[in-house]
Design a protein that fits this description.
single chain, 279 residues, 0% strand
């Protein structure tokens, strides 16, 4: 081992120890609690898989996560596609606008959506005042409000991931397709879309994983009526003190996320996304 390798190895040791102490050890404690609280055995897992309440929470989480992922990907792809085709000056302004939400707290954004979507909020007041509707719509404290808030939160991440992928597509390929007489729709479906599959794959994976463990936005915009897995775990720990069920559900969620990453890592599209910068 060269001196540089020894020096590099020495630098990684503190980070590795910190990761073990702050991440691996707590996860092992959660895993142990799922088998030992309140009594030793698989009772928490049996209760978790046999509970109708947990089943409803899991179904709600899956539905909200799936809808959020689809809507976020579709809207973000449109924005990223537009960014690629903008002039440099306009693109800089647009990218700045995309990154502005990163500077705003998730709590502020969630309460802003309540102001917009509530019965006497900005949107309902505008619709009623214009005569478009007779009665205010129920746009918040339900799945619709939760999905709106989650899509808004996820979009900057997805836009940047997709923009990075789309901007790497060689423009000469597009020019070649045009020179051969391909129409814009054909160019998009036969060139842009296939070449952007790695970006779509990694953005979708990111959104799904983030959505499965989302807590703040569903808790505020759902107001307890749209109970997702993360909020259910929080309630079990802080209110009902059912640590065994909560840790069992946390462990299962962690395993599901790990399985998603492992399966996705076997996909050529996702591997291309991670290895795109290698030459």
């Amino acid at each position: 081992m060269s001196s540089f390798q020894r020096w590099a190895f020495g630098l990684t040791v503190p980070a590795a120890l910190l990761t073990i102490c702050l991440y691996v050890v707590p996860i092992l404690q959660v895993l142990a609690l799922s088998f030992t609280e309140p009594t030793f055995g698989f009772g928490n897992y049996v209760e978790m898989f046999g509970s109708a309440a947990i089943g409803r929470v899991v179904r709600t989480t899956m539905i909200v996560s799936a809808v959020t992922t689809v809507l976020t990907i579709v809207v973000s792809y449109v924005v990223a596609f537009a960014l690629v085709h903008m002039r440099p000056a306009a693109r800089r302004v647009a990218l700045f606008m995309v990154m502005v939400p990163f500077w705003v707290s998730v709590l502020v954004r969630a309460f802003a959506w309540i102001t917009i979507l509530r019965r006497n909020g900005v949107l309902n007041s505008a619709l009623v005042g214009s005569g478009a509707i007779a009665e205010p719509l129920e746009l918040v404290y339900n799945q619709f409000g939760v999905i709106v808030g989650m899509v808004h939160y996820m979009m900057p991440f997805a836009i940047l991931l997709l923009y990075a992928n789309l901007s790497e597509i060689d423009p000469r390929i597009i020019q070649a397709a045009r020179s051969l007489g391909a129409r814009p729709v054909t160019i998009f479906t036969r060139v842009w879309l296939p070449l952007s599959l790695p970006g779509l794959a990694i953005a979708s994976l990111f959104i799904v994983i983030f959505s499965l463990g989302f807590l703040v936005t569903p808790a505020i915009l759902g107001a307890g009526r749209v109970l997702m897995v993360a909020e259910y775990i929080s309630v079990q720990i802080s209110s009902t003190l059912r640590w065994g069920v909560a840790t069992a559900l946390s462990t299962t969620l962690l395993l599901v996320v790990g399985l998603l990453v492992a399966v996705a890592a076997r996909s050529p599209a996702l591997r291309a996304a991670f290895e795109g910068g290698r030459r």
